[in-house]
Write a structure and sequence with these properties.
Blueprint (H helix, E strand, L loop, with lengths): L4 E7 L10 E4 L2 E6 L10 E5 L7 H5 L2 E3 L19 E5 L3 E5 L2 E6 L5 E5 L30 E8 L5 E5 L5 H8 L17 E7 L2 E7 L14 H5 L7 E6 L9 H15 L1 H5 L2 E5 L18 E2 L8 H18 L6 E2 L9 E5 L2 E5 L1 H7 L7 H13 L2 H8 L6 E4 L2 E4 L4 H7 L1
Parallel strand pairs: 1-5, 4-6, 11-13, 11-14, 14-15, 15-16, 19-20
Antiparallel strand pairs: 1-10, 2-3, 4-9, 7-8, 7-10, 8-17, 12-13, 18-19, 20-21
Bound molecules: guanosine-5'-triphosphate (GTP) and magnesium ion.
Magnesium ion binds next to helix 2.
Length: 419
């Protein structure tokens, strides 16, 4: 089965919690803080892999989770980080977050982190400072990112075969490569693209046999719409015209329709180097007058006529295109982390959301006075207090971050001191 679009949910691992722990010794009444930090959660990473033919795995398993980090322990032992979850995807996989293209994986080994693991929480030993010698609080781990992304496979082929249904595309690819597609005397035999590797003068040419195109394919008719995009990456196109009496459209008309569909799908496709060939040439007989002049090749997969010449021409067109635009590197969008925080009013309270907000309050025990002071410090430093004030919050208002509600009480002096 050929699967070329899927939507997956990926959840990165959460960070492990830091712990609060003390080494008790004689002469140290409170003990020395020695709580270790939690390990980071694993990322979910897509990795382009030439051995993966389709996105089938993701159709069957749309949900993936990377392991979380483990928590820290006393004696300054830190938690283990969660392993990254690497998901192999076919070469030519494009990745969308909503309508934003965030990656195009075409080089073997190219990687795209789709969900970032949560940071581990720090243990109480990390919070020791001159005026806080024995902190009793520790940080909780951060949640791993959870995302939904759409994967779309666009085959990476050197040349793509374009033609009406039944034109002989599959037969041709079966003659020039080891591909064994289904061949039959009815239209739409090929329902999913086939890739074949042809060897031409010592060079390998990857050819794609895609399902037949009919008039209106670019706007969704037949199967063409779904598969036209597999031609997008081809360096050269081979247009096959079918002279068989079963084909009702003339060769000229076939060419006209095919080029119009390519153009409608993507005008760049209509400008792509192309070779026009008449298939089933042994059926042509003397009907030379009917052959469009632009058709430079006549081939017969049945008799073998013209196949070598065609493949040399294809190799040459691919070479030329490669020299003109050698790079086909794909890309990975490096995005900033999502919004640090946002402030909005909801009913009678202020709601602060976002990663910086969650970070500010993610301590193990907020009832601890030390911890409360530390949270205050962070709310000021991260700019959340300023933003609340700008938005119109006044002392005494309720502020909610996640499940925690506290009273807005900015102490101007304390704020000055900390800045
Ligand atoms: N006479 C003759 N028939 C051919 C030749 N090449 C292919 N055919 C026949 O044409 C019919 C269609 O061939 P396919 O290769 O399945 O055509 P296709 O373009 O892949 O068709 P779809 O997959 O439906 O788009 C089959 O009956 C083939 O045997 C040829 O060179 N000469
Ligand atoms: Mg076919």
């Amino acid at each position: 089965m050929f699967v070329d679009t899927v939507t997956i949910r990926a959840r990165a691992g959460s960070g492990g919690a830091g712990v609060s722990s003390f080494l008790r010794r004689k002469g140290l009444p409170k003990g020395k803080p020695n709580g270790g930090s939690g390990g980071r959660g694993g990322d979910v990473v897509l990795v382009a892999d030439p051995n993966v033919p389709t996105l089938l795995t993701f159709d069957r398993h749309p949900v993936w989770k990377a392991p979380s980090g483990t928590h820290g322990e006393g004696d300054l032992r830190h938690g283990k980080r969660g392993d990254d979850l690497e998901l192999p995807v076919p070469l030519g996989t494009t990745v969308y977050d909503g309508s934003t293209l965030i990656g195009d994986l075409v080089e073997p080994g190219q990687r795209l982190v789709v969900a970032r693991g949560g940071k581990g929480g720090r243990g109480n030993a990390s919070f020791v400072s001159p005026d806080r010698r024995a902190p009793t609080f520790a940080e909780q781990g951060e949640y791993g990112e959870e995302v939904e992304v759409r994967l779309e496979l666009k085959l990476v082929a050197d040349a793509a075969l374009i033609g009406y249904p039944n034109a002989g595309k599959s037969t041709l690819i079966s003659r020039v490569s080891a591909a064994k597609p289904k061949i039959a005397d009815y239209p739409f035999t090929t329902l999913t693209p086939n890739l074949g590797v042809a060897t031409v003068g010592g060079r390998e040419i990857v050819m794609a046999d895609i399902p037949g195109l009919i008039e209106g394919a670019a706007s969704g008719k037949g199967l063409g719409h779904e598969f036209l995009r597999h031609t997008e990456r081809a360096r050269a196109l081979v247009v096959l015209l079918d002279p068989s009496p079963l084909q009702t459209d003339s060769l000229d008309r076939q060419l006209e329709v095919l080029l119009a569909e390519l153009n409608e799908h993507d005008p760049a496709l209509a400008r792509r180097p192309r070779i026009v060939a008449i298939s089933k040439s042994e059926l042509l007989g003397d009907a030379v007058a009917e052959v469009p002049r632009i058709a430079t090749h006549r081939i017969s997969a049945l008799t073998g006529e013209g196949l070598d010449e065609l493949m040399f021409a294809v190799a040459e067109a691919v070479d030329r295109a490669e020299r003109a635009a050698p790079e086909r590197e794909g890309f990975v969008l490096h995005r900033p982390l999502r919004d640090e925080f946002t402030v909005r009013q909801d009913g009678g309270e202020w709601v602060v959301e976002g990663i910086a907000a969650v970070r500010a309050v993610n301590l193990s025990d907020l009832t601890d006075p030390d911890a409360a002071a530390f949270v205050n410090e962070r709310l000021v430093r991260s700019g959340i207090v300023d933003r609340l004030r700008e938005a119109g919050a006044t002392p005494g208002d309720d502020v909610r971050i996640g499940s925690i509600v506290f009273t807005f009480d900015p102490d101007p002096e304390a704020v000055e001191e900390m800045q």
